[in-house]
Amino acid sequence: MPNGMARGARAPRHEVMIMKPVLLSWITACLLGGAGTAIAAEPPKDDGARLYARHCAACHQAGGEGVPGRFPPHRGHVGELYAAEGDPEGRRYLARVLLHGLTGPIQVDGVRYDGNMPAWGGALSDAQIAAVLNYLLTGLDPAQVPPRGFHPYTAEEIAALGEAELSGRDVHALRRGLVGFGEATPGFAETAGGAPDEASVLPRQAAFPTPAYVALQNSGLVTSLPSGTAWPGVPGAHYNALSPDGTQLLVSGFKTGDVYVMDARSGELTATLSIGAVAQGVKIAPDGRHGLAVAPGQGIVAVIDLGAGELVKKVPVGEEPHNAVFTADGSRAYVTLQGGGAIAVIDMARLEKVDEIPTPGLDTPHNLDLSEDGQRLWIRDFLGRVGVLDLKRRALVETFAVGNGHGGIDVVPGGRYVATGAIADSTVTVIDAQRMEVVAEVEVGSGPHGVRASRDGRYLYVSITADDTLAVIDTETLEVVQQVPAGGAFPFWIAVPGNP
Ligand code: HEC
């Protein structure tokens, strides 16, 4: 396609300018470590239509018609975006939206949206992103003629674009360079932050009675707050967990598929283990001996001997596991099956899956926590709901509508509240676990995901992925009392002593 090639050959000025230095170390790490990226051959079920139905339709709707004011339409819109000229041109812009997400105000057909679409890079493989884009442009709307000059995206093209470490706000800035759309994409300065700027009504030290360890995915760091100490060497730092004695951290490398064992006092890396193409949730058993790490593409939970720093076993659990939680005695672990609409149960003595409890009505169980009496699992899904699973009755006894997109969930120590984030939104939902009702939607900033309370339940820490901050909510007032820079890009998860 001469047209496309000529444009592609032009220096992508904006994109070069905003590439971050971390990119180099990232590439080096991938090359040296031979770490598996997600380019591997895809099973046939991953065609564009199925991927769209599974990952996009919940927000953009099955036919791509969108929800005015909340989720922009694709039908009648993406073809125009694709054909837009500018720097970058539409073709590359669309790929970047999928790879890195989009954060900031936009206008489509005269309707304003000011949302936050999470990045799909890593969650979907390069081949899957290419397939879903091709479907968007040629299959979603049967009446649609493919845009002029269309040629299918390839996994290689997506992989090359994916080497830049951009944020959703960076992509929003790129949208302003699209001819025909830029004017309708206001500068992000006018809405940047979204969170209270002067919320520091509490001395920093008081908000952190014990350290909080934050995993910074796009910086490959773990930072410790309130001191701000940063430890490198953990590419893709995604989920993290702290041992009960506070001496060891287990960290998952999202895009590397590696799991890192770290000394929680010195930051020294004591082991790096490969568990799959992508690594998600990690947890440490109450006795501190074993760690669990989830590899969704492989359908397994890896059991790690933390003392020896060795992989003990990969336990098959079911379709697309995401995160795990231990019972208080450590005899069992519950695992969300985001692709299987169920919770898998692992017997920790036998290191085998012994049960599977379906969660009908909650199709995409994502994160979870256990009530203090061990009777109920609080489950956060991928889209904007929380379900309460009664383990004796093996039934969902309640569901709540919460913020859009996926997020963490925490049964706040003391048991009164359960709190959950919402990465495609700006709120933390607080549920009163006795009254079984939502008591607050706390505005925290763009893209809140990780949620963990301090050991005494007084402060709730929230990682704000698109603002690169950590919000602190006082659970007595349910108000934000601190907004702390997280020390790097894309803070995803938080580990705190006493609240695994
Ligand atoms: C959790 C809800 C959610 C899901 C799931 C989701 N999106 Fe989005 N998407 C949004 C929101 C919100 C925006 C607008 C963001 C903004 O206002 O900055 C958006 C924007 C976009 C845009 C940019 C439109 C423009 O005019 O620039 C594209 C393209 C897109 N999404 C494609 C997809 C595809 C493909 C998938 C599935 C892989 C998907 N989205 C899944 C919420 C979602």
Q: What CATH first level of the largest domain would be assigned?
A: Mainly Beta
CATH architecture of the largest domain: 7 Propeller
**Relevant CATH superfamily of the largest domain:** YVTN repeat-like/Quinoprotein amine dehydrogenase
Number of domains: 2
The name of the CATH topology of the largest domain is Methylamine Dehydrogenase, Chain H
Tell me the β content: 25-35%
Poorly predicted tracts of residues: 1-45, 188-201
- What distance lies between the first and last C-alpha atoms, to the nearest angstrom? 54 Å
Mean pLDDT: 87
Share in helix: 10-25%
| Continuous helix count | 11
Main sheet makeup: 4 strands, antiparallel
Written overview of the protein:
The chain has 500 residues and is of the alpha+beta class. Helix 4 crosses helix 8, helix 7 packs antiparallel against helix 10 and helix 8 packs across helix 9. The longest helix has 13 residues, at 126-138. It is globular. The N and C termini lie far apart (54 Å). Mean pLDDT is 87; it is low at 1-45 and 188-201.
Main attributes of the structure:
500 residues; alpha+beta; Cytochrome Bc1 Complex, Chain D, domain 2; Methylamine Dehydrogenase, Chain H; 2 domains; 4-stranded antiparallel β-sheet; 11 helices; 30 strands; globular; binds heme C
Secondary structure layout:
Layout: H1 2-9, H2 13-18, H3 22-33, H4 48-55, H5 57-60, H6 78-83, H7 90-100, E1 102-108, E2 111-117, H8 126-138, H9 155-161, H10 168-175, H11 204-207, E3 212-216, E4 221-225, E5 229-231, E6 237-242, E7 248-253, E8 258-263, E9 269-274, E10 282-284, E11 290-295, E12 300-305, E13 310-316, E14 321-326, E15 332-337, E16 342-347, E17 352-358, E18 365-370, E19 376-381, E20 385-390, E21 395-401, E22 409-411, E23 417-420, E24 427-432, E25 437-443, E26 448-453, E27 459-464, E28 469-474, E29 479-485, E30 491-495
Antiparallel strand pairs: 1-2, 3-4, 3-30, 4-5, 6-7, 7-8, 8-9, 10-11, 11-12, 12-13, 14-15, 15-16, 16-17, 18-19, 19-20, 20-21, 22-23, 23-24, 24-25, 26-27, 27-28, 28-29
Helix pairs in contact: 4-8, 7-10, 8-9
Bound molecules: heme C (HEC).
The site of heme C has 29 residues, from α5, α6, α7, β1 and β2.
